[in-house]
Design a protein that fits this description.
Blueprint (H helix, E strand, L loop, with lengths): L6 H21 L18 H12 L4 H4 L7 H4 L5 E6 L4 H18 L2 E6 L3 H10 L6 E4 L2 H9 L8 H7 L12 E2 L2 E2 L2 E7 L2 E5 H7 L7 H13 L5 E2 L10 H14 L2 H8 L8 H15 L4 E2 L14 H6 L4 E3 L20 E5 L11 E10 L4 H10 L2 H14 L21 H11 L4 E3 L1 H4 L2 H17 L4 H11 L3
Parallel strand pairs: 1-2, 1-3, 8-9, 12-13
Antiparallel strand pairs: 3-12, 4-5, 6-12, 7-10, 7-11
């Protein structure tokens, strides 16, 4: 990692600590009031600790970057404090890399930082918050849920000083997603690019298939593959309590393409209903594709019974030719899979409708919100939204994956892109050239819908237990009044 950490990066870390810690000691509660029984954090490796201290604390130019007050030892010393972080990332690669990145910051500040991940995060965080036993910081994949928690007064507004430390590092509009009633309640710390298709290069080469440049070409390619005995798609929507979210992603991407961003925005806001014929029509388009004989390989026997993460191996094995999934999916490919032009698996942009002449992109990501007001909590919050975190997290996750694709991506504008490989940098380019870009709609909707009935009723429609019209009428009925 050290070759990627520049002098400017070290100065960023110094300034970040100065701003957040100075603010925290003035207005936040002194000391830690954490009484939880979190599992002890694994110790940072000696190499990471030494690197962090060398890079963040020993730069001889640090005196030039901060004034005497900022450098006061009492303001920099958070030794003996502890911060707990809880989120949905639970795999060894993702959760491990999150802890690796937090360990680097812990070594620089003296804060003990414990990350815990769980697949059923959404259910657990509800129970923890309602029961008065939340973590210090939660990692929310649904901004709509951030809004729900803000309305319950369960999470804290982000102080201006923290927003100032990280706000300019993110593309315009990023903070708007978690701003409610004019108040910011979250800090962005990860970006996922959803509008891409992973494909088996051997199948494309042997079949003479061209990369589709439009939705019309993609549909024609799907039909051609079926006719020639090639299964075009791998699809699975099982994801424990979150089963069904893959279906919502397909719908959202196609609403942006077949309809437009204005309809999309109105639909996300509840102004265009699920029962609207245009929305029903997009869902029926998805299901007609999935249900076409020979169109889909489902490793679990059915689409609803196949975990979304289990499609990597059959894609590499050639059981299907394509898999539409977000940039993080690299973390689910079998170990040793080579990705990129001429490799085992490559990626193309999920194309737009030719006549529209636009380039819509669906994104997602995570935001961190705080439940406890303390200087150490705000220090960790600011770090999680920083370019420094993005660089360390990316490097750590790539290392845990054995090199190649990490599955992590950030839209932070200040990060050093050399920590990414060529393919990952192409993902950033897609994000930067999007026209328009929209955040995952189900994540923006009220949690009861976006992380509730949209998933469950959508799954019922995929299974054929309900018609699309029946399922979508039930979703509309669940919308909070």
């Amino acid at each position: 990692m050290k070759e990627h950490r520049t002098r400017s990066t070290r100065l960023r870390t110094s300034r970040l600590l100065a701003v957040v810690l100075a603010f925290g000691l003035i207005v936040a509660a002194c000391g830690s009031d954490d009484s939880g029984d979190a599992v002890e954090a694994p110790a940072a490796t000696e190499a990471m600790a030494e690197e962090s201290m060398d890079d963040s604390m020993d730069d001889e130019s640090m005196d030039e970057s901060m004034d005497d007050e900022s450098m006061d030892d009492s303001m920099m010393d958070l030794s003996g404090t502890k911060v707990t972080v809880f989120g949905p990332e639970s795999s060894e690669e993702e959760a491990g890399a999150m802890q690796d990145a937090l360990d680097v910051f812990a070594a620089a500040t003296g804060i003990e930082i414990v990350y815990t991940g769980a697949r059923d995060f959404s259910d657990q965080i509800n129970a923890q918050a309602a029961g008065g036993n939340p973590p210090d910081i939660a990692v929310f994949p649904q901004p709509g849920k951030v809004g729900d928690f803000a309305a319950e007064d369960w999470i804290l507004a982000v102080p201006d000083e923290v927003q100032g430390a990280i706000g300019a590092q993110w593309p315009a509009g990023t903070l708007d997603t978690v701003t409610f009633g004019g108040t910011l309640y979250g800090v962005p710390n990860k970006t996922d690019l959803k509008s891409i298709v992973w494909y088996n290069t051997s199948i494309f080469e042997s079949g003479g298939y061209a990369i589709p440049e439009s939705q019309e070409e993609l549909q024609a390619l799907t039909i051609q593959m079926i006719t020639e005995g090639v299964t075009p798609w791998c699809v699975g929507i099982e994801s424990g309590p979150a089963t069904g979210w893959t279906f919502t992603d397909w719908m959202e991407d196609l609403i942006l393409r077949v309809l437009d961003e204005n309809v999309y925005d109105q639909w996300v806001a509840g102004e265009v209903k699920f029962a609207d014929p245009r929305i029903v029509g997009v869902a029926e388009l998805v299901l007609s594709l999935w249900n076409a004989p020979g169109a889909v390989y489902a490793a679990g026997g059915s689409i609803a019974a196949t975990p979304f993460g289990d499609n990597g191996e059959p894609l590499v094995a050639g059981d299907c030719a394509m898999h539409r999934q977000a940039s993080f999916y690299a973390a689910f490919l079998p170990e040793g899979t080579s990705v990129g032009p001429g490799q085992d698996i490559d990626v193309f942009y999920f194309p737009a409708v030719a006549a529209k002449g636009n380039r819509p992109v669906l994104t997602a990501g995570t935001y961190v919100s705080a439940f406890r007001d303390a200087p150490e909590v705000w220090a960790v919050m600011a770090y999680l939204g920083s370019a420094e975190y993005a660089e360390v997290r990316q490097s750590a996750q790539a290392a845990r994956k054995g090199g190649g694709q990490s599955g992590f991506l950030s839209a932070n504008l200040d990060q050093d892109l050399s920590v990414y490989n060529d393919l990952e940098r192409s993902f950033v380019e897609i994000l930067q050239t999007a026209s328009p870009a929209r955040f995952d709609g189900s994540d923006l909707m009220p949690a009861a819908v976006g992380a509730g009935t949209f998933w469950t009723e959508g799954t019922s429609a995929v299974n054929g237990d309900k018609t699309v019209a029946e399922a979508f009428a039930a979703i509309d009925a669940s919308w909070p009044q």
